[in-house]
Amino acid sequence: MAPILYNQIDGLTVQQGRYFEFQVPADTFHDTEQGNTRNLNLVLYTKDGQDLTPASWVQLNSSSQVIYGLPVEEDVAGSPHEYLLVAEDAEGLFVAEALQIHVSISSVADISSEFSISVNTNFTKFMSARQNLINLVQKLAEYYQDFSSRFVTVTSIQAGSVIVSWTNSSLSKTVCENVTVWNLVSELIDSEGFINTNFSSAMLPNYEVLSVSYRPLGVCAIGGATVIAIPTPGALPLVDDWIITVLPAVIVATIILLIALVLCLLYRRKRYSGKKLFKEDKPAFNCNRQPVILPDEFELQDFDNKPKQPLLLMTDTPRGPSGGPSTLNQPSPPPYQIPNFGFDEFDLSEVPTPPPSYYSGNGSSRPPPAYKLPPPYIVAPGSTDA
């Protein structure tokens, strides 16, 4: 079963320029399974059912179920503003209530003193989220030890960079409280007319104060004068702690890294500078940088002139009667004798000397190997070959 609206909120009335908070009562919604509002999920939408943007002057903290905001002069138009407050249970079932918020207008005639501060912040970025203005107001309230921001009322916001003006709502509107006013001014401006250093430090690191001013209005305008303060001459520029601490460390680390990189490059260049090959020399080396030796540069192998075991062809293997290799012990053949063909009567001195061998090798004078006799021919038993 979906949650139900148990007690309707009559509506809210807030003051222009003043921060407000409203916690949704626990008995506003009720769910049979989950109980009261504290056990439900609350979401605030526009009257058209659209999500609220960060620039909206009213917001909802879902965890604490607090509606809060800070309306300024431009938010007065269209009052009362209508919104949808939706309560949803764990099953996704929900119920919505129409909520009206009325913004009451602040009159300049009710203001007796106005304070202004100029901070070094981009105006468009500052106004893109209303939380930025809320944070600035809370900073001012904390500086005056007003932790609820109930006495700070914003009167205007202008560009350049960001100029925020406010008044203290605790001051009387019918009588000018000069002592109280000047005590407030002294917290912002020192006796020499410069920005109080305590105030400048309190606004850091989020806001860098460029100038501070005070303007008497209403009952204090008679005989009053506007006071404007600037930073103390010669003072160090107000910068964030990040620029003071982190940025120098990043610069030093970058310099050290660049020096280490340069040293590594110089070391590698020195290491390989003596082994660099020219383009025409690279073919003389292989991939392992070993010189390539051509075949003509090898020394001739020292061949053994003694004959080795004669090579027998398959057809020269003795065969047995069955065609297989013979198993009989064959007698050793007689030694080979060079036949005499009757050339003894020739005079060998008349035979011309043969030309030198064509092969010269690598220029060595070593004689060619001795002539090897052919192997004897063995006739297999039973063969008809003579």
Descriptive notes:
Helices cover about 15% and strands about 20% of the residues. The protein has helices at about 125, 130-145, 180-185, 195-205, 240-270; strands at about 5, 10-15, 20-25, 30, 35, 40-45, 60, 65-70, 80-90, 95-105, 115-120, 150-160, 160-170, 210-215, 225-230. A five-stranded antiparallel sheet has the order 12-13-11-14-15, with helices on one face. A hairpin with a 2-residue loop joins strand 12 and strand 13 (about 160-170). The chain is elongated and about 160 Å long.
Question: Main β-sheet: number of strands, strand sense, barrel status?
Answer: 5 strands, antiparallel
How large is the count of helical segments? 5
Gross geometry: elongated
The Cα radius of gyration reads: 55 Å
- Give the structural class: alpha+beta
Q: How widely separated are the two ends?
A: 123 Å
The whole-number mean of residue pLDDT values reads: 79
**Beta-strand proportion:** 15-25%
The counted number of beta strands is: 15
In helices, the fraction of residues equals 10-25%
Strands side by side in the biggest sheet: 12-13-11-14-15
Q: Which series of helices and strands comes N to C?
A: EEEEEEEEEEEHHEEHHEEH
Low-confidence stretches: 234-240
